[in-house]
Amino acid sequence: MRPKPPAPPNSPKTRVPTQFDPGSNRVRADANPPLLHQPQLTGIRRPDGDRQPQMSVADNGPGPSSVEITDIHSAQPALSHELHRYLLNPALLRNMGAADDQGIRYVVGRGFADIEGIGTVHVTLDSATGEYRVMDLYKKLPPGPVLVKNSGEATWRLAAPVESSKPSKHPVPVVDDSDSTVPNKKLRDSPVSVNEATSRLTGNFLVGLYPHMTHGQRVEHLRSYNLSPGQHVRLHDDLNLNPGEMPSWANQHKLRSMDTTAPNRLDPLYAEIEPLLLSVRNGSSHSHLVDFDKSVSPAFLDAFLAKTGYLRNANDCLYRTDIPALFRADERTSFEFYNDGRMLPRLKHPRGATTAKPISATVSLESVKTYAGKGTDAPDPEYLRYNNQKNKYPGKKPGESDNDSGQSDDDWSDASDVDLDSERNYETKRHDQQFVFSYIIDTRGMEVVLNEENHLLNRAALDKGAWFPDDELEALISTSKSGIPSQRLWLLDSTFTRAAKVDDVAAEAQSSDWGSEIEARTHSGVNNQREYDALIDAVAKAGKPVLILSAGKDWFANDIVWPE
Q1: CA dihedral 153, 154, 160, 162 (to 10 degrees)
Q2: Which helix (H) or strand (E) holds 155?
């Protein structure tokens, strides 16, 4: 990630909420999403009094539930009160790019659509129908109406009821059509979403079956069945047709899920969720599952997480050790890492998510390009007040008065193999540096705590105060106070298509006539990034390993294959 002062561990965050819909394309998480139930109805409001088409959710009486939307041709000019709540304030649209060929505008991976004559809304792809649906940007409102793109235009309109039943245009994860699972066709054809199905199960159908239970007891009772998201929909539809008793398949699945020796007890959940985890990690999966980790019993969830490769650390956060690489933008040069033999954790990074001290990074090469400014953005001036990564206190620029108020990281006080410099008010030498470097970190075998997956699969730990950077697609690398060995660090060139080990880059600089002064020129303010590119060229010519990243591809952590 781009180095910057982190928020205090307990400071409020601005996040878009976690929601999960099997087969769709994005995941986010809010601070307090309700447990797979009807969200609290609060959200964005526009100052004007526009009207919108009427939208209503059918009552809980007999017959299939449905979402009714007034016909577009008669309703489009009259913006009703409900859609009014989803419209974005025009001030939020200033930095939004033009719509792509699909009619979607993107900001930091989130999609937006312009409804003709009405305004702009946040949208996500509904995997059950293959259509785009209006969503509240802050996920405090339930899913809104379906939209249809205007032919030949970049704008959209509200769908007529007949249009919202089209078959899916996108694949849904294959689920075994057995007594204990839900067929794909049933997922696509069900008129309710996963959240709506679960909300009606605990708020309606289970009330009739278990009238003496409290709402909380009904939630826990449903949780004990260990149903997958699709099975929640199936149970809803079955009880809607026959509300008198729990169907036999649900009871059989509950018993099987509790049998730790049953080889297929995790199959329904695994079949729906596991194929989506990589897209969740990469930020390309929308979803509508709120508090997924609270939808099944804790023991069942832990078994599922273990099956999918997650471990749990002392802070109750999920981590993996099989992530090939992460990307990081940093003002520190390769020579500094080489000379120290390591990348030290950034000062003042809070603890709370990793076993040891964290170093933040991102799973996305595109994100690191943004943080690095593609070679044009200056580093954070606060970090340029440290002459090197071993300074405990910031220095002062020439001409500034002494300042003894600088703060250090007390967690370093017991480090035995890193001698930090306690000098204050030294004169800074790198305050004019003009660009940020980009690195790829070899994280194989290291504890990597992934932001997106913890927001989806492990909300409980985050609610207890586990700290993550505010930026999307970030991860935390658990390191000792000695940092990450320099052998694991690879410097990216200015085109973001090649990377070489920082140790090899530094060695080439030492053997060249001009390389010894590169770092000094960088610190003095010379924009000499091409000189580092030349060092990577020299590494390649010397036959040392160079990682090649093809241009035009969106590279993510799991795409990296390290050269032997």
Answers
A1: 80
A2: strand 155-158
| Beta-bridge partners for 158 | 147
Single out the residue of 415, 407, 409 nearest to residue 342, CA to CA.
Answer: 415
pLDDT above 60: residue 131:
yes
Q: How far apart are CA 129 and CA 147, in angstroms?
A: 12
298-321 burial, b at 16+ Cβ within 10 Å, e below that, comes to eebbebbbeebebeebebebbbbe
Q: What is the 3-state secondary structure (H, E, C) of 299-368?
A: HHHHHHHHHCCCEECCCCCEEECCCCEEEEEECCCHHHHHHHCEECCCCCCCCCCCCCEEEEEECEHHHH
Mean pLDDT, rounded, for 424-446:
94
Query: Which residue is listed with tokens 């980009």?
Result: 438
536: alpha, beta or left? (left if phi > 0; alpha if psi -120 to 50): alpha
Backbone angles phi, psi at 332, to 5 degrees: -75, 140
The pLDDT of residue 467 is 79
Q: What 8-state DSSP symbol labels residue 378?
A: P
In contact, 127 and 112? CB cutoff 8 Å? no
For residues 131 and 159, the answer to whether their CB atoms sit within 8 Å is yes
Q: What three-state secondary structure class fits 509?
A: helix
pLDDT recorded at residue 57: 34
Which among 542, 108, 73 has a CA at the least distance from the CA of 362?
108
Residue 472: closest CA among 381, 556, 374: 556
In this structure, are residues 500 and 536 in contact, taking their beta carbons and an 8 Å threshold? yes
pLDDT digits (tens, 9 = 90+) for 506-529: 999 988 877 779 999 999 999 999
Question: Does position 305 have pLDDT exceeding 50, yes or no?
Answer: yes
- What is the SS3 assignment for 195? helix
Specify the DSSP element, H or E, that contains 507. Answer: helix 502-511
- What pLDDT is recorded for position 289? 64
pTM of the entire structure?
0.67
pLDDT at residue 414, as a whole number: 46
Percent share of the chain, pLDDT over 90:
39
DSSP 455-480: HHH-HHHHHTT----SSTTEEEEEE-
- What's the whole-number mean pLDDT along residues 553-560? 94
Lowest model confidence (mean pLDDT) among 280-289, 354-363, 485-494? 280-289
Cβ count within 10 A of residue 421: 14
Q: Where is pLDDT greater, at 412 or 214?
A: 214
Written as one string, the DSSP assignment of 198-259 is: HHHIIIIIHHHH-TTS-HHHHHHHHHTT---HHHHHHHHHHHHH-TTS--HHHHHHHHHHH-
User: What are the sequence ranges of the domains in the chain?
Assistant: 55-165, 325-379+433-558
Burial status of residue 482 (CB atoms within 10 A of its CB: 0-12, 13-18, 19 or more): middle
pLDDT higher than threshold 70 for residue 535: yes
CB 35 within 8 A of CB 290: yes
Q: Could you count the other beta carbons within 10 Å of the beta carbon of residue 183?
A: 16
Cα 131 from Cα 286, distance rounded (Å): 12
| Type of residue at 463 | D
- Buried-state track 120-153, b at ≥16 Cβ within 10 A, e below 16: bbbbbbbbbbbbbbbbbbbbbbbbbbbbbbeeee
